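Saturday, quiet lab. Running sequence design on the structure tokens for the scaffold JK sent over.
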């Protein structure tokens, strides 16, 4: 990870986390039922373990791998002539569809579900829920993302946009922010909103096995989930 990529990703991470956390205080969707300090402490410890796990196991991360694929002309995008901007758009969409399908698998495969349960076991629902994932689930996700980047060879910009967006929308759509119904109906045409994703955290099985999207809501609609 280059210094510029690190600055961009950390800048967006802390900036969005701060904005969402403040909005949760100013306009909460509903009261929390457990100690916020205890939950945040536990959730943020998990957050801190995840990059350590990834760094220990992977010598290269998605944006760096995208630079390698571009340099050596690896992957599907290197074999077909497409305008650069279209490659960026298609790269972001392909990676988002990949994460959607990965999410479906984590609910369908018992071993993966045991890892993913750490995310669903949070007793409340706020910005830190969107960061609470078992370190092994993050390792599996990283392996899948690296495989897709190697196979497609998307532009590094597409991979960076996707990584920043995935992190940002995960915090946003797990947030405890009250959004007026009319605004929410418009937003969910373009992005997964908190009220749309909250259904996925239901204790009712048929609701838990729905609304898998993180960034875009279209995959759930197109694929019947």
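Result came back. Writing it out in full:
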């Amino acid at each position: 990870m280059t210094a510029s990529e690190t600055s961009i990703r950390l800048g967006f991470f802390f900036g969005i986390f701060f904005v969402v956390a403040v909005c949760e205080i100013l306009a909460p969707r509903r009261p929390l039922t457990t100690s916020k300090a205890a939950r945040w402490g536990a959730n943020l410890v998990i957050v801190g373990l995840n990059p350590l796990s990834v760094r220990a196991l992977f010598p290269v991360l998605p944006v760096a791998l995208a630079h390698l694929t571009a340099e050596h002309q690896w992957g599907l995008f290197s074999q077909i002539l497409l305008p650069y901007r279209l490659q960026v758009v298609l790269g972001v969409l392909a990676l988002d569809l990949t994460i959607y399908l990965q999410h479906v698998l984590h609910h369908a495969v018992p071993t993966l579900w045991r890892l993913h349960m750490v995310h669903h076991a949070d007793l409340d629902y706020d910005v830190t829920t969107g960061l609470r994932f078992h370190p092994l689930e993050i390792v599996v996700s990283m392996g899948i993302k690296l495989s897709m980047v190697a196979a497609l060879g998307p532009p590094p910009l597409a991979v960076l946009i996707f990584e920043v967006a995935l992190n940002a929308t995960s915090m946003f759509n797990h947030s405890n922010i009250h959004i007026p119904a009319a605004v929410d109906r418009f937003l969910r045409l373009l992005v997964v909103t908190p009220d749309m994703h909250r259904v996925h955290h239901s204790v009712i099985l048929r609701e838990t096995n729905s609304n898998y999207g993180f960034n875009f809501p279209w995959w759930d609609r197109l694929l019947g989930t």
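Notes for JK: The two ends are 35 Å apart (CA to CA). Residues 3-222 form one domain. Ask whether to fix the surface positions before the next round.
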